[in-house]
Amino acid sequence: MSVTEKQKMLAGELYLGNDPALVAERRRARDLLRAYNATADDEETRRAALLKTLFEAIGPGATIEPAFRCDYGYNLAAGANLFVNFDCVSARACSFSRLIIRSIPRCGARGWRALHRLRSATTSGSAAASSSARG
């Protein structure tokens, strides 16, 4: 049985980000986020339903102010009574970097994690060797 690119990604291994299944999952997340970010302040029920669809788990009383962005969403969990202010971005794709938020991130907070581990032997001389990872 061959390993999928998603399985590689979640295991923290090198994977192809342009894999059609991963592209479709990112599009799904973007569609949900587009709807979420377009909600009005009085649409708390709709916001909660969209986040419940997007996230792995969301605790009671969790609030994330639009605009919010993430790559897949299914690897994120929000703790009870969470409050995230405007313009938060979470670009975390690997399961080892599951983000369980229980604090109050500041405005414009960013959460990045490397999507894969770069090894000099596999990236030597390539464009990937010059890229940097934030964690």
Radius of gyration: 16 Å
Q: Approximately how much beta-strand content do the residues carry? A: 15-25%
| CATH topology title | UDP N-Acetylglucosamine Acyltransferase, domain 1
Per DSSP, the total helix count is 4
Write down the CATH class.
Answer: Mainly Beta
**Secondary structural class:** alpha/beta
Indicate the overall shape.
elongated
Largest sheet, strands/sense/barrel: 3 strands, parallel
Domain count, please report it. Answer: 1
Query: Termini separation (Å)?
Result: 32 Å
Number of strand segments: 8
Please state the second-level CATH architecture.
3 Solenoid
Low-confidence stretches: 95-100, 103-107, 112-135
Structure, explained:
It is a single chain. By secondary structure, the protein is of the alpha/beta class. The chain has a single domain (5-123), classed as UDP N-Acetylglucosamine Acyltransferase, domain 1 (3 Solenoid). The chain has four helices and eight strands. The protein has helices spanning 5-10, 20-37, 44-54, 120-123; strands spanning 57-58, 63-64, 68-70, 76-78, 83-84, 88-91, 99-101, 110-112. The strands form three sheets. Strands 1-4-7 form a three-stranded parallel beta sheet, with helices on one face. The protein is elongated. The model is unreliable at 95-100, 103-107 and 112-135 (pLDDT under 50).
Secondary structure layout plus pairing:
Layout: H1 5-10, H2 20-37, H3 44-54, E1 57-58, E2 63-64, E3 68-70, E4 76-78, E5 83-84, E6 88-91, E7 99-101, E8 110-112, H4 120-123
Parallel strand pairs: 1-4, 2-5, 3-6, 4-7, 6-8
Helix pairs in contact: 2-3
